[in-house]
């Protein structure tokens, strides 16, 4: 889909703050794409779509997930996680996205997973380090992303899993598998 038309659609669907986040993620994703050898137009599309379902009603996300054979384990976790699976379905069904790598980048941008593609990692990282983010440790994540994509992905998934564990919060199994893949086995 042409980016300009998609941006107009996103502006209708998302509150201002989230829309601006999506634009910042898109700029960050294009920057990382140039650095890490991913086609910028693919990174741009995935980034623009990644939060398309962020403000859907949970009941509507649940319906989409159930009707499309998505992972029902999601329902045992906070509905914040559901928008990635719902977003993938919307990108495919409502916007005609067929590229499986773009669809997977949308699908796994909140949890990560084992065996992520370069594009999936790039969107996961861009979502976490876009210039509007501010949290303890963000500088380390941004510095890692200047050097090496796998190092950046490791730093990002370690950060995300640690954030949840520090709050005694549940960690989705895909995130644990992603974490295990990026840290040492001792
Ligand atoms: Fe998201
Ligand atoms: Fe996001």
Describe the structure.
This protein has 186 residues and is mostly helical. The protein has a single domain, classed as Hypothetical protein af1432 (Orthogonal Bundle). It contains ten helices and no strands. It has helices spanning 3-13, 16-36, 40-49, 58-67, 82-93, 100-107, 118-129, 138-147, 149-166, 173-182. Helix 5 (82-93) packs antiparallel against helix 6 (100-107) and helix 8 (138-147) packs antiparallel against helix 9 (149-166). It is globular, with a radius of gyration of 16 Å. One fe (ii) ion binds at residues 21, 25, 50-51, 127. One fe (ii) ion is lined by residues 21, 25, 50-51, 127.
CATH superfamily: Hypothetical protein af1432
Stated plainly, the CATH topology is called Hypothetical protein af1432
Residues in helix, %: 55-70%
The stretches of 5 or more residues where confidence is low (pLDDT under 50) are none
């Amino acid at each position: 889909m042409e980016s300009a038309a998609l941006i107009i659609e996103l502006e209708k669907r998302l509150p201002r703050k989230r829309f601006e986040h999506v634009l910042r993620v898109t700029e960050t994703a294009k920057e990382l794409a140039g650095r890490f050898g991913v086609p910028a137009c693919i990174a741009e599309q995935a980034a623009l779509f990644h939060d398309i379902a962020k403000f859907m009603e949970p009941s509507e996300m649940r319906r989409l997930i159930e009707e499309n054979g998505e992972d029902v384990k999601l329902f045992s976790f906070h509905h914040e996680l559901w928008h990635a699976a719902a977003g993938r379905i919307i990108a495919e069904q409502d916007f005609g996205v067929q590229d499986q790598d773009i669809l997977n980048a949308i699908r796994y941008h909140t949890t990560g997973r084992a065996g992520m593609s370069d594009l999936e990692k790039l969107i996961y990282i861009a979502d976490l380090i876009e210039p509007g983010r501010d949290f303890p440790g963000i500088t380390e994540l941004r510095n890692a992303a200047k050097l090496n994509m796998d190092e950046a992905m490791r730093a990002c998934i370690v950060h995300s899993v640690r954030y949840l564990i520090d709050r005694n919060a549940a960690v989705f199994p895909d995130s644990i598998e992603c974490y295990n893949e990026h840290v040492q086995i001792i």
